[in-house]
Design brief:
The structure is a single chain. The protein is of the alpha+beta class and 95 residues long. It has three helices and three strands. Helices cover 52% and strands 18% of the residues. The protein has a three-stranded antiparallel sheet with strand order 1-3-2. The N terminus is likely disordered.
């Protein structure tokens, strides 16, 4: 995967983000400095582009969030979303 020469990604963070977006449709990362939050947003957008998906990002109060704008885009993603929602409800009812 190509990375920007202006913002190198020696840790493979962009590839890890792409994999998480592919599997879950969203991700969050914590940051300390505002500039770090903006860099995380750029990496999340780069990660989404690498898998050919539109993404929405935001950074606020030390947390960067990215979510695929077209999730769920297929029947598998629809089933994953339903399963996660049902599991969350089940956990809440058990508490």
């Amino acid at each position: 995967m190509a990375t920007s020469t202006q913002h190198p990604d020696p840790t493979g963070q962009t590839a890890a983000m792409a994999e998480q977006l592919r599997r879950t449709g969203f991700l969050t990362r914590e940051y300390r400095a505002e500039s770090e939050g903006e860099q995380l947003r750029r990496r999340a957008r780069r990660a989404a582009r690498s898998i050919g998906r539109p993404v929405r990002t935001q950074a606020h109060a030390g947390t960067m969030t990215a979510a695929l704008a077209d999730w769920p885009a297929n029947p598998l993603e629809e089933r994953l979303s339903e399963s996660r929602a049902n599991n969350s409800i089940d956990r809440a009812l058990r508490e």
